Amino acid sequence: MIHRRQLDAGSRGIGMTSHGTRGRLVERLREKGIRDERVLAAMLNVPRHEFVDEALSSRAYEDTALPIGQGQTISQPWIVARMTEALLESGRPEKVLEVGTGSGYQAAVLAQLVKEVFTVERIRELLRSTRQLFHRLRLYNIHARHADGHVGWPSQAPFDAIIVTAASRTIPEELIEQLREGGVLVMPLDKGNEQRLLALHRTEEGYDTQDLGGVVFVPMLSGLA
Ligand code: SAH
Is residue 19 situated within a structural domain? Predict the structure, then answer.
């Protein structure tokens, strides 16, 4: 089920930020191989310009990553779509954990598609402003917390799916433990010379690994900031 909402309330203007511009982005994603109509519909519904600095809002519907302050970036729309698609392939996740809230865009896309989104961010200042945005856009099914994603969100586990939006050099065992059997963990793994996007499917004994290709993410860091 798609939890559709009208997210344009309080929008900052017209023209570049219109539904039509967003429609062209969605068409481009389709051309680049995104097939899941649920994902495309969710991305049509979420006003990405709200998640970037006002000075950059005219570029919000280009398929590129953009700076969001604190040395962090909002992910490229194509990668958001691809990761969301990979997450939905595991069935119908209802309860999802995201590591790396950042601008909140990925969480907002997920919030259209699943029942509850739990998201953690290590940079307090970034989390503060993103929380306000969730509230303004009435995204009440997103629960955001200031925490180091390496420890996940144990009191809410198990999750049907987990998405990590920063590149880690190791597979965080605690996140695997917070995944229910049959669930999927989608994350970029930093292999030193390159980053690979992995989908880890939790099995009875451990997990199966699927490689979804090369990606570029900011690093997953330890501790709070
Ligand atoms: N999902 C975000 C992408 C933001 S970039 C979006 O849609 O905009 C990755 C984010 O991960 C950054 O905000 C960074 O601060 C955060 N991050 C890095 N390491 C982390 C950790 N250990 N725990 C939680 N967040 C982390």
Answer: no
Per-residue pLDDT reduced to its tens digit, 103-135? 999 999 999 999 999 999 999 999 999 999 999
- pTM assigned to the model: 0.94
Ligand 1 center–CA 199 separation, angstroms? 18
Q: What is the CATH number of the domain that holds 112?
A: 3.40.50.150
Virtual torsion, Cα 201, 93, 7, 10, nearest 10 deg: -70
Length reported for the chain: 225
224 in a structural domain: no
The best mutation among 79, 101, 110 to test binding of ligand 1, ranked by most ligand atoms within 8 Å of the C-beta, falls on: 101
Lowest mean pLDDT among 68-72, 78-82, 176-180, 190-194: 68-72
- What separation in Å is there between the alpha carbon of 193 and the centre of ligand 1? 21
Domain residues for the domain of 193 are: 65-215
Cβ pair 94, 115 in contact under 8 A: yes
The count of structural domains within the chain is 1
Whether residue 162 lies inside any domain: the answer is: yes
36 lines ligand 1 (CB under 6 A): no
Does 178 sit in the ligand 1 pocket, CB within 6 Å?
Answer: no
Span 71-95, average pLDDT: 95
The verdict on residue 205 lying in a domain is yes
Q: Which residues, other chains included, contact 53 with Cβ-Cβ below 8 Å and sequence gap of 6+?
A: 67, 68, 69
